[in-house]
Model the fold of this input.
Amino acid sequence: MSNTNRRFPAEWEKQQGILLSFPHKGNDWPGKYGAIQWALTEFIKKVATCEEVLLVVADEKLKEKVGEMLEMAHVNTDRVHFIIHRTNRSWMRDSGPIIVKNGDKREAIHFDFTGWAKYSNHRLDKQTAPKVADFLGIPVTQAMYQGKRVVMEGGAIDSNGKGTLLTSEECLLHPTIQVRNPGFGKEDYERIFAEYLGISNVIWLGDGIVGDDTHGHIDDLCRFVNPDTVVTIVEPNPKDENYPQLQDNLKRLKDARLENGKSLNIVELPMPTKLVFDDCRLPASYANFLIINECVLVPVFNDPNDRIALNILDECFPERTIIPISAIDLIWGFGTLHCLSQQIPV
Done:
């Protein structure tokens, strides 16, 4: 059980804004950097229709260039606030701070980011969380456990705001591949979640989708859409390599319980058709949507299942407008809307 005043708000709770980063290099999207800049501009435009955008840019030169692009795209620039900070990558879900409520105040929890325990160039990203917290004027707390800095990415966890958290065994517990915290088991993580996020109940799914560079992030698999309902992706084709683990995850959800002891309401969301670029299977998933104050932004892939997924999510969010955003170029970086962003609760 959690004995802290901290609470990890659900994504649908009232937001001040969304943290994004404008890439100053195209390393995450080889050959597509030009297209990516305009895809990001469109993403910023949609968020800025209803809340603030905190936009990390590498330097004043990039700030000026991005400002011109935003003007050209008729973005509401009054809602865009620049943070000058050089990063290695643009995935704010994973290197940005996780903002929790501590009593009636906000607190930035800083989990270490180590390039998904895969890439060596992450030194600059380690400073992103403190930089954003300083910009917001809120205290930052380094997550520690047994005398060590805890490594964790925001894409690995999802909260219902009531004390239940979703995560995956592949991401956090695999003994040899992309090991974030060597030697940590479920009990260790659950103690960390309780202390820093106020979590009293953890639902563990199994494996993530094929092609996921993060090795099992939950935001490609399963998401809360209200305190007692999740959407979870399923692969309709039994011959597809994603089919067995997504069926296993579905079974785990059916057996799971919420913090109040009740069963979950489970809504199944299809996968898009297998997406391959340059002989590489890409981790395209409709679960990588982003909930903002009045809308839900949903990645789409020029696929027949786009319409089905949008209709399902429309039923899940009756009070919000569902807005599709083309992610055909974004997914070449192995992530889309949710991976790129981090919500800032009020």
Summary: Residues 33-48 form the longest helix (16 residues). Residues 6-345 form a domain with the L-arginine/glycine Amidinotransferase; Chain A fold (CATH 3.75.10.10).
